[in-house]
Amino acid sequence: xxxxxxxxxxxxxxxxxxxxxxxxxxxxxxxxxxxxxxxxxxxxxxxxxxxxxxxxxxxxxxxxxxxxxxxxxxxxxxxxxxxxxxxxxxxxxxxxxxxxxxxxxxxxxxxxxxxxxxxxxxxxxxxxxxxxxxxxxxxxxxxxxxxxxxxxxxxxxxxxxxxxxxxxxxxxxxxxxxxxxxxxxxxxxxxxxxxxxxxxxxxxxxxxxxxxxxxxxxxxxxxxxxxxxxxxxxxxxxxxxxxxxxxxxxxxxxxxxxxxxxxxxxxxxxxxxxxxxxxxxxxxxxxxxxxxxxxxxxxxxxxxxxxxxxxxxxxxxxxxxxxxxxxxxxxxxxxxxxxxxxxxxxxxxxxxxxxxxxxxxxxxxxxxxxxxxxxxxxxxxxxxxxxxxxxxxxxxxxxxxxxxxxxxxxxxxxxxxxxxxx
Length: 422
Description:
By secondary structure, this protein is of the alpha/beta class. It folds into 2 domains: about 100 residues, Aspartate Aminotransferase, domain 1; about 250 residues, Type I PLP-dependent aspartate aminotransferase-like (Major domain) (Aspartate Aminotransferase, domain 2, 3-Layer(aba) Sandwich). The protein has 12 helices and 15 strands. The strands form 4 sheets. Strands 2-8-7-6-5-3-4 form a 7-stranded mixed sheet, with helices on both faces. It has a 4-stranded antiparallel sheet with strand order 11-12-15-14, covered by helices on one side. A two-stranded parallel ribbon has the order 1-13. Strand 3, helix 7 and strand 4 form a beta-alpha-beta unit. It is globular, with a radius of gyration of 25 Å.
Protein backbone atom coordinates (compact mmCIF):
# COMPACT_ATOMS: atom_id res chain seq x y z
CA UNK A 1 0.00 0.00 0.00
CA UNK A 2 1.07 3.57 -0.53
CA UNK A 3 2.31 5.65 2.38
CA UNK A 4 -0.29 8.27 3.31
CA UNK A 5 0.98 10.95 5.73
CA UNK A 6 -1.16 12.23 8.56
CA UNK A 7 -3.15 15.38 7.90
CA UNK A 8 -2.69 18.49 10.05
CA UNK A 9 -6.04 17.79 11.74
CA UNK A 10 -4.96 14.25 12.57
CA UNK A 11 -1.65 15.48 13.98
CA UNK A 12 -3.44 17.95 16.27
CA UNK A 13 -5.76 15.19 17.43
CA UNK A 14 -2.82 12.91 18.22
CA UNK A 15 -0.94 15.66 20.10
CA UNK A 16 -4.06 16.54 22.11
CA UNK A 17 -4.56 12.89 23.03
CA UNK A 18 -1.05 12.57 24.50
CA UNK A 19 -1.21 15.97 26.14
CA UNK A 20 1.42 18.07 24.35
CA UNK A 21 1.11 21.23 22.31
CA UNK A 22 3.53 20.44 19.47
CA UNK A 23 5.77 17.74 18.06
CA UNK A 24 8.75 19.42 19.78
CA UNK A 25 7.24 18.34 23.06
CA UNK A 26 8.23 14.77 22.22
CA UNK A 27 11.87 15.82 22.53
CA UNK A 28 11.69 17.93 25.71
CA UNK A 29 13.96 15.54 27.63
CA UNK A 30 16.85 16.19 25.23
CA UNK A 31 19.12 19.04 26.47
CA UNK A 32 18.87 22.16 24.35
CA UNK A 33 22.68 22.32 24.15
CA UNK A 34 22.84 19.21 21.95
CA UNK A 35 19.93 20.03 19.67
CA UNK A 36 20.64 21.33 16.18
CA UNK A 37 19.23 24.84 15.91
CA UNK A 38 19.22 25.02 12.12
CA UNK A 39 20.31 22.58 9.45
CA UNK A 40 22.82 24.00 6.99
CA UNK A 41 21.29 22.55 3.87
CA UNK A 42 22.25 23.89 0.47
CA UNK A 43 19.70 24.95 -2.09
CA UNK A 44 18.01 22.19 -4.12
CA UNK A 45 20.06 20.62 -6.92
CA UNK A 46 19.08 18.72 -10.02
CA UNK A 47 20.12 15.08 -10.40
CA UNK A 48 22.85 16.13 -12.84
CA UNK A 49 24.16 18.74 -10.42
CA UNK A 50 24.19 16.26 -7.55
CA UNK A 51 26.15 13.78 -9.66
CA UNK A 52 28.70 16.46 -10.63
CA UNK A 53 29.06 17.60 -7.02
CA UNK A 54 29.63 14.05 -5.73
CA UNK A 55 32.12 13.38 -8.52
CA UNK A 56 34.13 16.49 -7.64
CA UNK A 57 34.11 15.50 -3.97
CA UNK A 58 35.28 11.98 -4.77
CA UNK A 59 38.22 13.38 -6.72
CA UNK A 60 39.67 14.53 -3.39
CA UNK A 61 40.12 10.89 -2.33
CA UNK A 62 43.58 9.43 -2.73
CA UNK A 63 42.98 5.95 -4.09
CA UNK A 64 46.45 5.35 -5.49
CA UNK A 65 47.93 3.54 -2.48
CA UNK A 66 49.76 0.26 -2.87
CA UNK A 67 48.54 -1.75 0.10
CA UNK A 68 50.22 -4.54 2.05
CA UNK A 69 47.43 -4.86 4.59
CA UNK A 70 45.93 -8.15 5.74
CA UNK A 71 44.91 -8.80 9.35
CA UNK A 72 41.76 -10.70 8.43
CA UNK A 73 40.77 -8.96 5.20
CA UNK A 74 42.73 -9.94 2.11
CA UNK A 75 42.94 -8.32 -1.30
CA UNK A 76 42.52 -10.96 -4.00
CA UNK A 77 41.71 -10.70 -7.70
CA UNK A 78 38.07 -11.44 -8.53
CA UNK A 79 37.56 -12.84 -12.05
CA UNK A 80 34.84 -11.04 -14.00
CA UNK A 81 32.85 -14.28 -14.34
CA UNK A 82 32.05 -14.12 -10.61
CA UNK A 83 30.22 -10.79 -10.74
CA UNK A 84 28.66 -11.72 -14.08
CA UNK A 85 26.97 -14.80 -12.61
CA UNK A 86 26.01 -13.44 -9.17
CA UNK A 87 24.47 -10.39 -10.90
CA UNK A 88 21.92 -12.54 -12.68
CA UNK A 89 18.48 -11.77 -11.26
CA UNK A 90 17.58 -15.40 -10.55
CA UNK A 91 20.55 -15.54 -8.16
CA UNK A 92 20.75 -12.16 -6.48
CA UNK A 93 17.02 -12.21 -5.67
CA UNK A 94 17.09 -15.77 -4.28
CA UNK A 95 17.60 -14.78 -0.65
CA UNK A 96 16.83 -18.01 1.13
CA UNK A 97 15.00 -21.22 0.13
CA UNK A 98 11.98 -21.18 2.43
CA UNK A 99 10.12 -23.12 -0.28
CA UNK A 100 12.91 -25.51 -1.35
CA UNK A 101 10.80 -27.49 -3.79
CA UNK A 102 10.68 -24.44 -6.09
CA UNK A 103 14.21 -23.18 -5.32
CA UNK A 104 16.22 -25.88 -7.07
CA UNK A 105 18.72 -23.47 -8.63
CA UNK A 106 19.92 -21.84 -5.42
CA UNK A 107 19.78 -25.17 -3.58
CA UNK A 108 22.08 -26.75 -6.16
CA UNK A 109 24.47 -23.80 -5.87
CA UNK A 110 24.55 -24.17 -2.08
CA UNK A 111 25.10 -27.93 -2.41
CA UNK A 112 28.07 -27.27 -4.69
CA UNK A 113 29.39 -24.71 -2.18
CA UNK A 114 29.11 -27.24 0.63
CA UNK A 115 30.90 -29.89 -1.42
CA UNK A 116 33.84 -27.57 -2.12
CA UNK A 117 34.15 -26.43 1.50
CA UNK A 118 34.16 -30.04 2.67
CA UNK A 119 36.89 -30.83 0.14
CA UNK A 120 39.04 -27.91 1.30
CA UNK A 121 38.58 -28.50 5.03
CA UNK A 122 38.63 -32.30 5.03
CA UNK A 123 35.35 -32.36 6.97
CA UNK A 124 32.23 -34.44 6.35
CA UNK A 125 29.53 -31.80 6.34
CA UNK A 126 29.20 -28.03 6.21
CA UNK A 127 26.26 -25.70 6.58
CA UNK A 128 25.01 -23.17 4.05
CA UNK A 129 27.33 -20.49 5.47
CA UNK A 130 27.30 -18.12 8.44
CA UNK A 131 27.46 -14.33 8.85
CA UNK A 132 31.27 -14.15 8.96
CA UNK A 133 34.35 -15.88 10.32
CA UNK A 134 34.08 -14.33 13.79
CA UNK A 135 30.47 -15.37 14.40
CA UNK A 136 31.22 -18.82 12.95
CA UNK A 137 34.00 -19.27 15.52
CA UNK A 138 31.67 -18.16 18.30
CA UNK A 139 28.94 -20.53 17.13
CA UNK A 140 31.50 -23.35 17.05
CA UNK A 141 32.30 -22.73 20.71
CA UNK A 142 28.62 -22.92 21.62
CA UNK A 143 28.24 -26.04 19.50
CA UNK A 144 31.24 -27.66 21.23
CA UNK A 145 29.67 -26.93 24.62
CA UNK A 146 26.44 -28.58 23.49
CA UNK A 147 28.36 -31.67 22.34
CA UNK A 148 30.56 -32.04 25.43
CA UNK A 149 28.15 -30.63 28.05
CA UNK A 150 31.07 -28.61 29.41
CA UNK A 151 31.39 -24.87 29.98
CA UNK A 152 35.05 -23.92 29.46
CA UNK A 153 36.40 -22.65 26.14
CA UNK A 154 40.20 -22.48 25.83
CA UNK A 155 41.28 -20.12 23.07
CA UNK A 156 44.81 -19.19 21.98
CA UNK A 157 45.72 -15.51 22.27
CA UNK A 158 47.07 -15.74 18.72
CA UNK A 159 43.48 -15.92 17.42
CA UNK A 160 42.39 -12.73 15.64
CA UNK A 161 41.62 -10.23 18.46
CA UNK A 162 38.35 -9.15 16.85
CA UNK A 163 37.27 -12.80 16.64
CA UNK A 164 38.16 -13.20 20.29
CA UNK A 165 35.87 -10.30 21.22
CA UNK A 166 32.96 -11.85 19.32
CA UNK A 167 33.60 -15.25 20.95
CA UNK A 168 33.51 -13.62 24.39
CA UNK A 169 30.27 -11.79 23.61
CA UNK A 170 28.51 -14.95 22.41
CA UNK A 171 29.88 -17.14 25.20
CA UNK A 172 28.83 -14.65 27.87
CA UNK A 173 25.21 -15.06 26.78
CA UNK A 174 25.56 -18.84 27.20
CA UNK A 175 27.44 -18.59 30.53
CA UNK A 176 30.55 -20.14 29.02
CA UNK A 177 33.97 -19.41 30.55
CA UNK A 178 36.49 -18.22 27.93
CA UNK A 179 40.09 -18.85 28.95
CA UNK A 180 42.83 -17.13 26.91
CA UNK A 181 46.16 -18.97 26.77
CA UNK A 182 49.55 -18.59 25.09
CA UNK A 183 50.01 -22.31 24.48
CA UNK A 184 47.55 -25.17 24.07
CA UNK A 185 46.25 -26.37 27.43
CA UNK A 186 43.03 -27.84 28.76
CA UNK A 187 41.35 -29.40 31.78
CA UNK A 188 38.61 -31.90 32.53
CA UNK A 189 36.13 -29.00 32.22
CA UNK A 190 37.26 -27.90 28.75
CA UNK A 191 34.60 -28.10 26.06
CA UNK A 192 36.90 -27.04 23.21
CA UNK A 193 40.34 -25.73 22.38
CA UNK A 194 40.29 -23.01 19.69
CA UNK A 195 43.29 -22.55 17.39
CA UNK A 196 43.66 -20.35 14.31
CA UNK A 197 46.03 -21.23 11.46
CA UNK A 198 47.52 -19.18 9.97
CA UNK A 199 47.06 -17.25 13.21
CA UNK A 200 46.75 -13.48 13.57
CA UNK A 201 50.54 -13.18 13.28
CA UNK A 202 50.60 -15.31 10.12
CA UNK A 203 52.13 -18.38 11.77
CA UNK A 204 51.12 -21.82 10.56
CA UNK A 205 50.16 -24.45 13.14
CA UNK A 206 50.18 -28.23 12.66
CA UNK A 207 46.63 -29.54 13.14
CA UNK A 208 47.77 -33.15 13.67
CA UNK A 209 50.14 -32.16 16.49
CA UNK A 210 47.53 -30.02 18.22
CA UNK A 211 44.89 -32.76 17.96
CA UNK A 212 47.35 -35.31 19.33
CA UNK A 213 47.93 -33.04 22.31
CA UNK A 214 44.27 -32.30 23.12
CA UNK A 215 43.12 -35.90 22.61
CA UNK A 216 39.39 -36.29 23.20
CA UNK A 217 38.84 -32.57 23.83
CA UNK A 218 37.05 -31.00 20.88
CA UNK A 219 39.32 -29.00 18.57
CA UNK A 220 37.93 -25.91 16.82
CA UNK A 221 40.19 -24.90 13.93
CA UNK A 222 39.94 -21.35 12.57
CA UNK A 223 41.00 -20.29 9.07
CA UNK A 224 40.79 -16.53 8.45
CA UNK A 225 42.72 -16.63 5.14
CA UNK A 226 41.06 -19.56 3.31
CA UNK A 227 43.34 -19.41 0.24
CA UNK A 228 45.93 -21.02 2.53
CA UNK A 229 43.86 -24.21 2.22
CA UNK A 230 44.95 -24.41 -1.43
CA UNK A 231 48.45 -25.48 -0.40
CA UNK A 232 48.32 -26.42 3.29
CA UNK A 233 47.15 -29.83 4.46
CA UNK A 234 43.44 -29.73 5.23
CA UNK A 235 42.55 -29.68 8.96
CA UNK A 236 40.67 -32.96 8.71
CA UNK A 237 41.60 -33.99 12.27
CA UNK A 238 39.83 -30.99 13.78
CA UNK A 239 36.32 -31.56 15.11
CA UNK A 240 34.94 -28.24 13.84
CA UNK A 241 36.53 -26.02 11.18
CA UNK A 242 35.46 -22.39 10.90
CA UNK A 243 36.73 -19.57 8.77
CA UNK A 244 36.19 -16.42 6.78
CA UNK A 245 35.36 -17.06 3.14
CA UNK A 246 35.41 -13.53 1.69
CA UNK A 247 38.74 -14.26 -0.05
CA UNK A 248 36.77 -16.61 -2.32
CA UNK A 249 35.41 -14.15 -4.87
CA UNK A 250 33.96 -11.59 -2.46
CA UNK A 251 35.23 -8.01 -2.47
CA UNK A 252 36.45 -6.34 0.72
CA UNK A 253 33.84 -3.58 0.31
CA UNK A 254 35.08 -1.48 3.24
CA UNK A 255 34.18 -4.27 5.66
CA UNK A 256 31.58 -6.65 4.27
CA UNK A 257 29.38 -8.47 3.77
CA UNK A 258 31.58 -11.41 4.62
CA UNK A 259 31.05 -15.16 4.47
CA UNK A 260 31.30 -17.46 7.48
CA UNK A 261 32.54 -21.01 6.87
CA UNK A 262 31.59 -23.78 9.30
CA UNK A 263 32.22 -27.50 8.77
CA UNK A 264 32.30 -30.52 11.06
CA UNK A 265 32.21 -34.31 11.39
CA UNK A 266 29.17 -36.28 10.32
CA UNK A 267 28.44 -37.34 13.91
CA UNK A 268 27.92 -33.69 14.92
CA UNK A 269 25.76 -32.63 11.98
CA UNK A 270 22.55 -32.34 13.98
CA UNK A 271 24.14 -29.70 16.20
CA UNK A 272 25.42 -27.66 13.26
CA UNK A 273 23.57 -24.32 13.17
CA UNK A 274 21.91 -23.13 10.00
CA UNK A 275 20.90 -25.20 7.01
CA UNK A 276 22.35 -28.22 5.25
CA UNK A 277 21.39 -28.87 1.63
CA UNK A 278 21.33 -32.47 0.41
CA UNK A 279 21.04 -34.22 -2.94
CA UNK A 280 18.23 -36.68 -3.66
CA UNK A 281 16.04 -38.00 -6.49
CA UNK A 282 12.36 -37.37 -7.16
CA UNK A 283 9.69 -39.96 -7.97
CA UNK A 284 10.84 -39.99 -11.59
CA UNK A 285 14.47 -40.64 -10.64
CA UNK A 286 15.56 -37.11 -11.52
CA UNK A 287 18.25 -35.47 -9.36
CA UNK A 288 16.93 -32.85 -6.98
CA UNK A 289 18.03 -30.86 -3.94
CA UNK A 290 16.41 -30.48 -0.54
CA UNK A 291 16.98 -28.80 2.80
CA UNK A 292 18.13 -31.91 4.64
CA UNK A 293 18.56 -30.32 8.07
CA UNK A 294 17.35 -26.96 9.32
CA UNK A 295 18.45 -26.31 12.90
CA UNK A 296 17.12 -22.73 12.96
CA UNK A 297 14.33 -21.37 15.13
CA UNK A 298 12.52 -20.20 11.97
CA UNK A 299 12.10 -23.86 11.01
CA UNK A 300 11.88 -25.82 14.25
CA UNK A 301 10.82 -25.24 17.86
CA UNK A 302 12.87 -22.47 19.43
CA UNK A 303 14.02 -24.60 22.36
CA UNK A 304 15.45 -27.19 19.96
CA UNK A 305 17.19 -24.71 17.65
CA UNK A 306 21.00 -24.77 17.55
CA UNK A 307 21.14 -21.04 16.96
CA UNK A 308 18.56 -18.31 16.71
CA UNK A 309 20.62 -15.77 14.77
CA UNK A 310 22.54 -17.69 12.10
CA UNK A 311 21.71 -17.09 8.45
CA UNK A 312 22.55 -18.19 4.96
CA UNK A 313 24.77 -15.68 3.17
CA UNK A 314 23.45 -17.12 -0.08
CA UNK A 315 24.83 -14.56 -2.54
CA UNK A 316 28.26 -14.50 -0.88
CA UNK A 317 28.33 -18.30 -0.85
CA UNK A 318 27.37 -18.30 -4.54
CA UNK A 319 30.28 -15.94 -5.30
CA UNK A 320 32.61 -18.32 -3.47
CA UNK A 321 31.20 -21.26 -5.46
CA UNK A 322 31.73 -19.53 -8.80
CA UNK A 323 35.23 -18.41 -7.76
CA UNK A 324 36.30 -21.89 -6.63
CA UNK A 325 34.77 -23.49 -9.73
CA UNK A 326 36.66 -21.02 -11.91
CA UNK A 327 39.98 -21.68 -10.16
CA UNK A 328 39.70 -25.46 -10.01
CA UNK A 329 43.07 -27.10 -9.48
CA UNK A 330 44.82 -23.83 -10.30
CA UNK A 331 43.99 -22.72 -6.78
CA UNK A 332 47.25 -24.41 -5.83
CA UNK A 333 49.09 -22.02 -8.16
CA UNK A 334 47.39 -19.04 -6.51
CA UNK A 335 48.46 -20.31 -3.09
CA UNK A 336 52.03 -20.70 -4.32
CA UNK A 337 52.07 -17.14 -5.70
CA UNK A 338 50.83 -15.66 -2.40
CA UNK A 339 53.41 -17.70 -0.51
CA UNK A 340 56.26 -16.61 -2.77
CA UNK A 341 55.25 -12.93 -2.81
CA UNK A 342 55.10 -12.81 0.99
CA UNK A 343 58.47 -14.51 1.46
CA UNK A 344 60.08 -12.26 -1.14
CA UNK A 345 58.72 -9.17 0.64
CA UNK A 346 59.86 -10.57 4.00
CA UNK A 347 63.43 -11.06 2.80
CA UNK A 348 63.52 -7.59 1.26
CA UNK A 349 62.36 -5.94 4.49
CA UNK A 350 64.96 -7.82 6.52
CA UNK A 351 67.63 -6.53 4.14
CA UNK A 352 66.46 -2.97 4.93
CA UNK A 353 66.90 -3.18 8.69
CA UNK A 354 63.61 -4.74 9.74
CA UNK A 355 64.01 -7.63 12.19
CA UNK A 356 62.03 -10.89 12.44
CA UNK A 357 59.71 -11.35 15.42
CA UNK A 358 58.72 -15.02 15.14
CA UNK A 359 60.66 -18.05 14.00
CA UNK A 360 57.78 -19.96 12.45
CA UNK A 361 56.57 -20.85 8.95
CA UNK A 362 54.08 -18.43 7.43
CA UNK A 363 51.82 -18.28 4.39
CA UNK A 364 51.15 -14.76 3.08
CA UNK A 365 51.39 -12.74 6.28
CA UNK A 366 54.17 -12.11 8.79
CA UNK A 367 55.37 -9.82 11.60
CA UNK A 368 58.51 -7.68 11.47
CA UNK A 369 59.90 -5.03 13.79
CA UNK A 370 61.51 -1.69 12.99
CA UNK A 371 62.52 1.27 15.15
CA UNK A 372 60.00 4.11 15.13
CA UNK A 373 57.54 1.95 13.20
CA UNK A 374 54.77 4.55 13.22
CA UNK A 375 57.06 7.16 11.69
CA UNK A 376 58.23 4.68 9.05
CA UNK A 377 54.64 3.74 8.14
CA UNK A 378 53.58 7.40 7.99
CA UNK A 379 56.46 8.27 5.65
CA UNK A 380 55.70 5.27 3.44
CA UNK A 381 52.07 6.38 3.27
CA UNK A 382 53.21 9.79 2.03
CA UNK A 383 55.00 7.94 -0.77
CA UNK A 384 51.85 5.97 -1.65
CA UNK A 385 52.44 2.72 0.27
CA UNK A 386 50.47 1.24 3.18
CA UNK A 387 52.88 -1.28 4.64
CA UNK A 388 50.87 -2.98 7.35
CA UNK A 389 49.12 -2.92 10.70
CA UNK A 390 50.79 -1.64 13.88
CA UNK A 391 50.29 -4.45 16.39
CA UNK A 392 50.66 -2.16 19.39
CA UNK A 393 46.99 -1.32 18.89
CA UNK A 394 46.07 -4.89 19.84
CA UNK A 395 49.10 -5.89 21.92
CA UNK A 396 50.75 -3.01 23.85
CA UNK A 397 53.82 -5.16 24.48
CA UNK A 398 54.45 -5.43 20.71
CA UNK A 399 55.69 -1.87 20.22
CA UNK A 400 57.16 -1.16 16.76
CA UNK A 401 55.91 -4.52 15.42
CA UNK A 402 54.12 -4.48 12.06
CA UNK A 403 51.84 -7.14 10.55
CA UNK A 404 52.53 -7.23 6.79
CA UNK A 405 50.72 -9.16 4.04
CA UNK A 406 51.24 -9.89 0.35
CA UNK A 407 48.86 -11.53 -2.12
CA UNK A 408 48.82 -12.04 -5.88
CA UNK A 409 47.68 -8.40 -6.13
CA UNK A 410 51.11 -7.15 -4.98
CA UNK A 411 53.42 -7.23 -8.00
CA UNK A 412 57.18 -7.66 -7.71
CA UNK A 413 57.51 -4.14 -9.12
CA UNK A 414 55.30 -2.74 -6.34
CA UNK A 415 57.27 -4.60 -3.68
CA UNK A 416 60.59 -3.38 -5.08
CA UNK A 417 59.29 0.18 -5.33
CA UNK A 418 58.08 0.15 -1.73
CA UNK A 419 61.30 -1.36 -0.44
CA UNK A 420 63.31 1.08 -2.56
CA UNK A 421 61.51 4.03 -0.98
CA UNK A 422 62.75 2.90 2.44
